[in-house]
Amino acid sequence: MDYKKYSQILKHVTKPGRYTGGEIGQVIKNKDDIRCRFAFCFPDTYEIGMSNLGVRILYGVLNEMPDVWCERVYAPWTDMGEYMRKYSISLTAHESVDNVADFDIVGFTLQYELCYTNVLYILDLAGIPLLASERSDDCPIIIGGGPCTYNAEPVADFFDIFSIGEGEEALPELCRLYIKMKSDGTYTRSKFLYEAATTLEGFYVPSLYKVEYKADGTIKSYIPADEKVPAKVRKRIVDDFDTSYYPTKPIMPFIETVHDRIMLEVYRGCIRGCRFCQAGMVYRPVRNRTVATLCRQAKELYENTGCDEISLTSLSISDYTDINELTNTLVEWSDANIVSLSLPSLRADSFTKELMDKVSSVRTSGLTFAPEAGTQRLRDAINKNVCEEDLMRAVRVAFEAGKNSVKLYFMIGLPTETDEDIIGIAKLAKAVIDEYYKTPGRNKKRPPQVTISVACFVPKPFTPFQWEAQNTREELARKQRLLGEHITDNRIRYTFHDSRISHIEAVLARGDRRLSAAILEAYRRGSCFDAWDEHFDYDRWLSVFADTGIDVAFYANREFGEDEVLPWDIIDCGVKKEFLICERRRAYESKPSPNCREGCLGCGANSLGGKGRCCP
Amino acid sequence: MNEISLNEKKVKTPSPLRIRFLKTGSLQFISHLDLMKTMTRLLIRSGLKMWYSEGFNPHPKLVFALPLSVGVESVCELLDVRVYGDIDYENLIRRLNESSTPELKFIEAYVPKRKFKEIAYARYKITVYSQNLTEGCADAVTKLFRSPIIVSKRKKSGDHDTDIVPFVRSLSAKFDAGAHELCVNTVLSASPDNYLNPEYIVEAIRRATGAPSDEDFTPGGDSYRILRTEMLDSKGQMFK
Ligand code: SF4
């Protein structure tokens, strides 16, 4: 935003540094050299968007192309949004301060379902028609990517095209196609979309498919416009992850962001296969980066940013094959340079004293583990292969090192769950307290504290639990109360997620195209920043669904049939449906499955390729 | 990259270094806390061998002379840091500027001779732009400062009605009718106990002239700019 023109407004909004840009490391190009201008939108605040690794990578990848200029756009907070409306100020991109509506391609990363209304908010502030069908040839192409595009159907009406899977190679190909068609004069909006869908891999153009429904409301079929349009869109992966592009000159935000540190992406995917977890399925197969590559990137990042904290980011970091070698090398180097190391998540079974000493985030703050379920039976059913012994050993290590607080994450409403499993959560928390008093070397000055944070299960596409019904809100509330009644120890702190949010999430996660009308109506009635508690309005969502003919229970609380055509069947994420069904069966038998390193279950993701993948 | 290790750093004694820089343009919207973070990173990138605090979370210690409020620009900021070894000042400034942006520009580095607590005043140039300003507005402003100006001043103990005039060492105003700009030059108390935020002067100007408007933010409409130009000691001499 032009700070001179709008200085009065900037002086009156919260965190004006969100809007002024000019950060060290931003990419500025000469417009004369540019043939494709790409606006990369993050449909949430600047602080959250700036922390997103995917955005950093794609921003870098696109700007490596000499004739493409990728810029950033974030959702202005509501106070700024109001001023923009009042004074008719159009949304501009961060770098050039040019109107978003004047770009060639406008991309959105869809990280969570609750950002959907923010996509409309950004399009609206930019003055771009909200519906793809209303855009003319001179409107930018609106493209979506990110985890939610594994079922993008609920937002299908707003997007021209989706990029499925990893975008590092796909997005440059799309830009090349755009530049080619613009320069040889063949470009029209519909021709471009058709070419992208039929000649490039990993692009889904919703308008090229007609959806038919059965009388009971389920989907009958997806009919491609012609035989060249793929019946299923296969996700893209980067073939050689170790050598693939990684941004070592990231933008340094001036204001505080959520994760303001050097991020190393150690590996992609997850070997575990927890049955509720979408990330663990859709990012398959697992591909590692080598220690040498990671250390080189760490040093470059340190020299280019001066940031003194390194965070290793990956789904389950301790599963990295060379975790010891990596942390040893980094610790040695970082000690000399006074850089601290942090890990986002640790599994109880791989938590050791050695690792704890190396990692300052563990040294300085609390410890968190995610057993997810209260009993071994249910942990086996969800394939969270952590046993009570592992957890007790891990907390003992922590207590011996002088820690006295532990945070545990759980989920309720999981398939096959009984009241015994709920009560098991309270018992497990109590066992951790008891373990504290059994640990001889504990810090006797302060009493122990165990915090349990309990989320609600949301069935997600491409997981073995994708067909499961979500518990009704009454049932979730009953379970939350039941757990509360069994927590009698005041050294246990109990917090739980708002089931109303999880309920809407479930509708949006498993929804089909008919939901677009409801999302649009919710936005029109004021829904925005739904991921923020203070802005989330459950009753408004319910009334919107009622008024637009959407049966909430049909999407959230109904068990989908295994033979049903699912809205996301149009996507091929590598993992086969038979595998998901097989895993679902094993869940019902409370049987865990080996992880990808112990033994391949033949999920199908190996067919996607990927150098150095863990698969046979 | 820092070449000496932690242990070596402990045996040598660090010496003080003062850096003068400006913080202008869109950087006025970056808070002091955020500036500290950026500054630390720029200093690390410059290769300067800094003294680090001990403990769980070692970090270099940066001391700023007079933190700027959000919305205020400055061409005279001072920062002290403790460093090891001989420093090539020009080279340091060049390296800092190479990795910074023009709105956060480094001017010079030197061994400090005076302490920050000797700072008593700061000089500001306040420019108000408005189509509604009329001839005589400059006089109206200077006249206003001849009698007490009571504002609600935020303190730790809550808001207090305070007369700001005793905190104003000098003030002059000039109106440029062609540019619709009222320019106020003022020296305000800046000692730790008696720091006066220059926004109060803008508030006083608003009372005297009606501008800048506090409600209408039409692009290209009323605006104002506050620029800190100098820090002064108790005798009114420039502090460096
Ligand atoms: S193919 Fe086998 S090893 Fe590869 S991701 Fe699937 S289950 Fe794991």
Question: How does this model look, in words?
Answer:
- The complex is a heterodimer of chains A (616) and B (240).
- Chain A has helices at residues 7-10, 46-49, 53-63, 78-86, 116-126, 170-183, 189-199, 279-282, 291-305, 323-337, 353-358, 360-364, 376-381, 388-400, 419-438, 473-486, 499-509, 515-524, 538-547, 552-556, 577-588; strands at 36-42, 68-74, 105-109, 141-145, 161-163, 203-204, 209-213, 219-224, 233-234, 262-265, 267-268, 287-288, 309-313, 340-342, 367-372, 405-412, 449-456, 492-496, 571-572.
- Chain A is of the alpha/beta class.
- Among the domains of chain A are: 3-234, Cobalamin-binding domain (Rossmann fold), CATH 3.40.50.280; 238-364 and 586-616, 2-Layer Sandwich (Transcription Regulator spoIIAA).
- Chain A has a 6-stranded mixed beta sheet with strand order 2-1-3-4-5-6. Chain A has a 4-stranded parallel beta sheet with strand order 15-16-17-18. In chain A, strands 10-13-14 form a 3-stranded parallel beta sheet.
- The longest helix of chain A has 20 residues, at 419-438.
- The relative contact order of chain A is 0.11.
- Chain B has 2 domains: 6-113, Pseudouridine synthase I, catalytic domain, N-terminal subdomain (Alpha-Beta Plaits), CATH 3.30.70.580; 119-232, Alpha-Beta Plaits (2-Layer Sandwich).
- By secondary structure, chain B is an alpha+beta fold.
- In chain B, strands 1, 2, 3, 4, 5, 8, 9 and 10 form an 8-stranded mixed beta sheet that branches.
- Helix content of chain B is 21%, strand content 35%.
- In chain B, helix 4 (137-144) crosses helix 5 (199-209).
- Chains A and B meet through helix 1, helix 9, helix 10 and helix 12 of A and helix 2 of B.
- The site of iron/sulfur cluster has 11 residues of chain A, from loops.
